[in-house]
Specification:
alpha+beta; BirA Bifunctional Protein, domain 2; Rossmann fold; Translation Initiation Factor IF3; 3 domains; eleven-stranded mixed beta sheet; five-stranded mixed beta sheet; 27 strands
């Protein structure tokens, strides 16, 4: 059974299949009866809860508060901001009736034609419209600003090609929506939240990211600027892992949200929105995991340490239980999430394989000889290295080891990104190198036409114009026209 659990397609053979199998085998999620929607299983949801808890703390530290807005949006709301409705029109699910009835022939239930809505309702693809319609009632004066709201919610976008966590019709996320008195304050907010996302990705997910601004073609529908964090997966493809949008006054004008400023004049409010979703779980899997299963960073692992006893009889187990009880209590006192698995319905080998598959960062094992010698076997999931350690002070040892694993996972991912990031100057070299995967730094003339040509011919997109790095001007690799700086190109999920 243990062998079957670990029988994963190798990444080198079929990376996409490896990912799909791992999500299911590690008990993170599965397909549901609703096309394109997933069931997030308890272990997968536990990872999301840890992400949610940490992000929520970070949002609150920056002055944000949580609220909740309706799932359903009147269709007319989406019509008010032209770019916004155009961006989401093809992905919207529409509610047209409010009642079912039994079919006359007894074949089941049918939609009651008498229950047609006067105005159709849209299941939210994102909440800008319903929120800005609400903010109109909240804002009269500059004293009412800023509004710094976030909501944890589900959204629905009718996706045709889905993949668990990475792209599903329904997904969980948070969406921040803020209102400000000045352009400068709103732009500062959008960048501030981008940096919050960057810190979360690197410090907690152990995923290095490039922070930058999206090109006009890749911008959020209705935004003046979209900021993004872009991560590189092990196969060299990019994954957009979080975005923050400066919306200007577009939504304020669409919903007539005005305020009396300090000069006693009416002015439209300035806006931002920003969000990350359960796609981050996909990023976590693809950044760190290996052919044996998940590799989870300790800061987000639901179980940081698992302890497995190996015993010959009940008397020996009782002695090991007593010894382990103190170690478990001490680890918990240090803030470590620990599970002691002394269940008798699975062999130790099965347990080892299962916890390895699920990416538990540290495994401790105590057998009869360990009990006599006051030692434990310690295995770290990131390198699969084992060593024997004295039980005296093992709690502090494990606590430090978790931090060492966290840093090692990050450095490994950073090294991979650096090795797979190259600079090119000609379009011929670009077309050759893009086949190898990775991030390509190249000059672009800033026009949507050139960007679209590159996308059509190579399937690569501009992931972002980096906020930091080499800003040396040059010439576009395609047209030879002036280019302000190099941008990040990659194929992406």
């Amino acid at each position: 059974m243990a062998k079957e659990l670990k029988d994963l397609t190798k990444r080198s053979e079929n990376y996409s299949q490896w990912y799909n199998e791992l999500v299911v085998k590690a008990d993170l999620a599965e397909q549901s009866a609703v096309r394109g929607c997933m069931v997030i299983k308890p272990y997968g949801y536990a990872i999301w809860e840890k992400m949610q808890r940490q992000l929520d703390d970070m949002f609150k530290e920056t002055g944000h508060v949580n609220a909740y807005f309706p799932l359903l949006i009147p269709k007319s709301f989406l019509s008010r901001e032209a770019e916004h409705v155009e961006g989401f029109a093809k992905e919207c699910a529409v509610v047209t009736h409010y009642r079912l009835k039994n079919a006359a022939d007894g074949s089941g239930v049918v939609v009651d034609p008498a229950a047609k809505l006067e105005e159709e309702l849209i299941i939210r693809p994102t909440s800008e419209t319903i929120i800005w319609n609400t903010y109109k009632n909240w804002v009269q004066s500059y004293r009412d600003l800023p509004i710094l709201c976030n909501q944890w919610a589900n959204v629905f976008r009718w996706e045709m090609r889905t993949r668990l966590f990475l792209r599903t019709a329904e997904f969980l996320w948070q969406e921040g929506h803020t209102a400000h008195a000045t352009r400068e304050e709103a732009e500062e907010e959008a960048l501030k939240m981008l940096h919050v996302y960057g810190e979360f990705a690197e410090k907690y997910m152990a995923v290095p990211v490039v922070k930058g601004v999206k090109s006009a073609n890749e911008r959020f529908a209705g935004a003046l600027n979209t900021y993004t964090i872009e991560a590189m997966m092990q196969d060299g493809k990019a994954l957009q892992s979080g975005t923050s949008h400066f919306l200007g006054q577009n939504f304020a004008k669409a919903f007539d949200v005005q305020f009396v400023n300090k000069e006693n004049k009416m002015e439209y409010v300035w806006a931002t929105s920003w969000g990350v979703s359960t796609r981050l779980i996909g990023a976590l899997i693809m950044s760190h995991s290996d052919d044996n299963g998940l590799v989870l960073p300790p800061h987000l692992a639901p179980i940081q340490v698992v302890i497995v006893p190996i015993y010959k009889n009940q008397e020996q187990l009782d002695l090991i239980d007593a010894k382990i009880a103190g170690i478990v209590a001490n680890l918990k006192a240090l803030g470590v999430s620990v599970k002691y698995d002394n269940s008798d319905n699975k062999r130790p080998g099965f347990k080892f394989a299962d916890y390895e598959l699920k990416g538990v960062p540290v495994r401790l094992v105590m057998g009869g000889r360990d009990l006599e010698s006051n030692t434990m076997e310690v295995m770290r999931r990131d390198t699969l290295e084992k060593e024997t350690v004295s039980c005296d002070g093992i709690e502090a040892y494990v606590k430090n080891l978790l931090e060492e694993i966290q840093e090692n996972i990050y450095q490994k991912a950073l090294k991979h990104r650096e090795e797979k990031t190259i600079t090119v100057d000609t379009y011929e070299e670009f077309k050759e190198k893009i086949e190898e995967g990775g991030f390509i730094m190249a000059h672009w003339d800033g026009t949507p036409e050139t960007e679209e040509k590159i996308k059509e011919e190579t399937k690569a997109t501009i992931r972002c114009i980096p906020l930091e790095g080499d800003k040396t001007p040059g010439v576009c690799m395609v047209t030879g026209k002036p280019s302000a700086c190099r941008v990040v190109f990659a194929r992406s999920y």
